[in-house]
Design brief:
This protein has 728 residues and is of the alpha+beta class. Helix content is 43%, strand content 19%. The longest helix has 28 residues.
């Protein structure tokens, strides 16, 4: 495969990953959980058309209306000759199919002597696979009550649910109330599910309402769930929703979970979906978890962290959860830095990024029981339906893309492909052993793919022409950095305003009164001042006057002072020029070197040239002539040096906005390490002396001799400089 084809394929792959990631991370359509009517606020109207019975929710005007807590407006049930329901379909207010719980559009029932087969349907009435992994439930009934359920796929084969079981068994009390669930394996034996227990029992009050539950293993002994509790106690609100959960130990006493809280208080939207969770200890005091959060707020399919007062925290997690595409932006920025930075800095950044990965995957996590999921692509069925699943998958990939980029810049060896895989396996193993997470094969796959994509990214960038990379570096060096350097005050102002605005947005509901002595109120006042300040030429606050023109006045004064100094300098120059025997002349503020400095530079440049060439520098024959001849000679020397410098600058492909002086070009070569400091200083002094000669000034012969002695060595060093650039 040619280099151009490889580069093209690499660019296409990178662009595809970025685009698909952004599309996958786009949030689902917003749902207003509080808009509409609940089933308790609506009336029920039933119509019969042959074997089809339609049950609809209607408002006070008799209009069919969707019940937001049920997810549909009408349910149509078709019955057989025995009056048994054989199919039911869910419709919205307009009579169109609507998904129940966002999962299925209807159910079909088939009956035989042993039980009932319940199959989930799509909009066309065809069987579908639910998000839990099954399509059909085969239910056995005893005394008219559901006893055993087993789960099957579209092909009629037994299937394991996402919780790790194939079926379940129900037990009932004398009142016919379900009091226990036993989870079953393929052969109908009790099995521990991924939650950590095999049997779940229910405690009910006098009304039959479930007020608690406890967990047991296959032998009937108390079992600890994956969250860390042996049981739970419930309190319910007026709507019947559980609004408080108290977690219990093996002796049914309140005890903290693995995360550290004992009591969870929950609020709900009007449609019955959970809104916020807040954490408390056994005494009812707010409890902070590992990341400093005291609760969570559900926003779509993502969770935002809350502080002690129930306000959204200003933190990285909320930024990434609230704006999922920031993961892609962050990954692209880090990859770009690893590519354009020098190799040494790229290595340092890679080491820092490895520490960041360990921080994100192992640190500040709640410990629990060892759990694993070795089913590859276990989330495939939920990927397109749930944003939270998509976010998790994409994050696993992008977490390792910068790592792969850094590894390639560091080693550029094929075995670097193994590092993401080995590192991911090590992380998942550590999570399993320590209980800091679930060891999942999907995570290993996503991390490894991300690392390989990063390696391809770095390899593609390495194949880009050198001139292109130099152009990028030049843009960063000559445009981006100076821009930010010159605009630092404006940028700082922008950061303050944005940060204050974001903070206030996250805590807007906590601002009750401006005169409240709170941090939020203080931030609000500062934010208002920052916004208003640029609108006034003069602002008086607490007896302090702030003028916008102060900086302009200072700059104007500085300019006037500089102009005065220049005029004075020119006057002094005119006086000094008349005495050409002086040891030091000053023209335009640039002093000529003293005799001792001339002798020092002469010896230095001769020694330097002799060391590099292993021979002594040949001097230009010293010929005493007229002042005019000396001036022409010095002009030629200056011209040769300037041409040599420009050739070096052109080879660097340096494109300044304005024409560069000889001194500026010399200093650029020195800054880039192409010309040593001694040669640079000597070159500058030669140019300054030659400039006097070009303007017709009569010079002391010591200056002329200095130029003649050092000029050949300077040209030789400039030639070596050109050779270094060509070889780079």
């Amino acid at each position: 495969m040619s280099a151009n084809l490889k580069r093209g394929c690499g660019i296409l792959l990178i662009a595809s990953v970025v685009l698909l990631s952004i599309l996958a991370l786009l949030p689902d359509a917003d749902v207003d959980h509080d808009a509409g009517y609940t089933s308790s606020e609506l009336s029920i109207r039933e119509t019969v058309d042959g074997s089809v019975t339609s049950t609809s929710y209607v408002n006070f005007d008799g209009v069919i209306t969707e019940a937001i807590d049920m997810g549909y407006a009408t349910v149509c049930r078709m019955r057989d000759d025995n009056g048994r329901v054989v199919e039911e379909r869910y419709l919205d207010a307009s009579g169109n199919p609507v998904a129940r719980y966002g999962d299925y559009y209807g159910l079909s029932y088939k009956y035989d002597e042993t039980g009932t087969a319940i199959t989930y349907l799509d909009t066309e009435g065809n069987p579908i696979i639910r998000s839990d992994g099954y399509s059909t439930i085969v239910r056995t009934q005893v005394d008219g009550r559901a006893s055993d359920d087993f789960y099957y796929d579209l092909n009629g084969q037994q299937v394991q649910c996402s919780g790790g079981y194939y079926g379940l068994h129900r037990e009932y009390n004398a009142e016919g109330q379900n009091i226990s669930l036993t989870f079953l394996d393929k052969d109908g034996h009790a099995v521990c599910i991924s939650s950590g227990y095999a049997i779940k029992t229910y405690q009910r009050d006098g009304n039959g309402t479930v007020v608690g539950e406890q967990y047991f293993d296959t032998e009937g002994n108390p079992a600890r769930s994956s969250l860390g509790q042996y049981g739970e106690l419930y309190q319910r609100n007026e709507q019947g929703y559980i609004d408080q959960i108290t977690y219990l130990d093996a002796d049914s006493n309140p005890a903290p979970t693995n995360a550290g809280y004992t009591i969870l208080k929950r609020t709900y939207h009007r449609d019955g979906t959970a809104d916020t969770d807040m954490y408390f200890d056994a005494n009812g005091n707010p409890k902070a978890l590992s990341k400093g959060q005291y609760g969570i707020k559900r926003s779509g399919d993502v969770n935002l962290l809350l502080d002690k007062n129930g306000n959204i925290m200003l933190c990285v997690d909320n930024l990434l959860n609230g704006f999922p595409c920031m993961v892609v932006v962050f990954g692209c920025v880090v990859c770009l830095l690893m590519i354009v930075l020098p190799k040494s800095l790229s290595v340092v950044l890679t080491i820092v990024y490895v520490a960041f990965i360990l921080y994100e995957t192992l640190m500040f996590r709640e410990s629990g029981d060892a759990r694993m999921n070795f089913v590859l692509f276990s989330y495939a069925g939920k990927f397109l339906k749930e944003q939270s699943v998509r976010v998790g998958v994409i994050n696993n990939i992008w977490l390792f893309i910068p790592l792969g980029t850094g590894l390639y810049r560091w080693f550029q060896k094929k075995w670097a492909l193994l590092v993401p895989f080995v590192m991911s396996v090590a992380i998942e193993t550590t999570q399993y052993v320590t209980g800091l997470g679930i060891a999942e094969l999907d995570d290993v796959f996503g991390n490894t793919m991300g690392g390989w994509i990063g390696i391809v990214t770095a390899s593609t960038a390495a194949n880009v022409r050198k001139t292109s990379m130099e152009y990028i570096r030049k843009i960063l060096r000559d445009r981006v950095i100076p821009f930010f350097k010159n605009k630092i005050k404006h940028i700082w102002y922008f950061i303050l305003v944005v940060a204050s605005t974001v903070y206030l947005f996250c805590n807007h509901f906590a601002i009750d009164k401006i005169n409240d002595a709170s941090l939020i109120s203080t931030v609000f006042i500062v934010w208002a001042i920052l916004l208003v300040l640029p609108l006034f030429t003069e602002l008086e606050l607490f007896g302090v006057k702030v003028k916008k023109e102060v900086e302009e006045a200072v700059e104007k004064s500085n300019k006037e002072v500089k102009d005065s100094l220049n005029n004075l300098q020119q006057l002094v120059m005119q006086i000094q020029v008349s005495n050409n025997a002086t040891n030091q002349l000053t023209i335009n503020g640039n002093p000529l070197p003293s005799e001792s400095r001339i002798e020092e530079l002469t010896n230095a440049i001769q020694t330097l040239t002799a060391q590099k060439n292993n021979e002594k520098t040949n001097e230009v024959p010293r010929e005493e002539g007229t002042a005019s001849e000396q001036n022409v000679e010095l002009f030629k020397i200056r011209y040769d040096i300037e041409m040599a410098l420009r050739e070096c600058i052109e080879l660097l492909r340096f494109e300044p906005q304005t024409r560069m002086t000889t001194v500026s070009m010399a200093r650029i070569l020195n800054q880039r390490g192409l010309l040593d400091s001694t040669t640079t200083d000597t070159l500058i002094e030669i140019v300054r002396i030659a400039n006097r000669a070009v303007h017709g000034e009569m010079l002391n012969q010591k200056y002329v001799g200095f130029v003649r002695k050092t000029y050949p060595g300077i040209l030789d060093e400039l030639q070596k400089c050109k050779n270094r650039i060509n070889m780079a």
